[in-house]
Amino acid sequence: MEPSTTPAEVAFGADAHTYRMPLPRLALTPDVSHGPLDGAWWPRSGALELELPSLVGSLEPDPGAAIRVTVDPAEWPDAPRTVMAPGRVIAVEPAGPGSDAHVITLDCGTVGRWVLLVVPPEEPAGTAARLLATAADPENPLTAARMLVLACGSPQAVQALGEGPVGATGEAE
Hints:
Blueprint: H1 7-12, E1 26-28, E2 39-41, H2 48-58, E3 67-71, E4 82-85, E5 88-94, E6 103-107, E7 113-118, H3 125-135, H4 144-152, H5 155-161
Parallel strand pairs: 2-7, 3-5
Antiparallel strand pairs: 1-2, 3-6, 4-5, 6-7
Helix pairs in contact: 3-4
C-alpha cells in the first residue's frame, strides 16, 4: 500500500514542513459555571495574534460564525483589531472601563460565550496548573484578579485582601 500524501505535501514536496500552533493550554468548566469564570487559558506568549487562532479553534465554533473577543487592554495594549485564523476573521475589542482585569471573553455565536482567566505566559507551571484547575471549577467564587493575587501576589497584597495563600483548590488556606 502506498503512503498517502496531504495536499501540502503534493504542492510543496514530501520534505516540506508545515507549522501548526500547539493546542492551547486551556481548562473549561465541565458544566454551567456558577462563578465569575468559565475556565482559564495559559497562552505561551503575549502575542495575541499568534495565540488566539488555536484558542478559538479549540472551542469549535460553527464555520462562518462571527467570533468576537474582548481583551484586557492592560494585558494587550497593542492588540490587533482583527486576527486571521483558518477560515475566519476574529474581531478583537478592548474591554471597557470597569471590566475585570486578566480576563478574555470569547463570544463564538451559537456555540457559546466564555469568560476566561488569562494566566500570564511567564507563570511557573505549577502555579499555572493550579490556576487552570481552580478557574475550571464550576463552584469557584473567585474573580480572575483575586485568583492571581492569591496565587502569585506578594504577602502584602494577599494580606491586603485579608486572605491567606491560595491552596490547590484555589481557596484561601
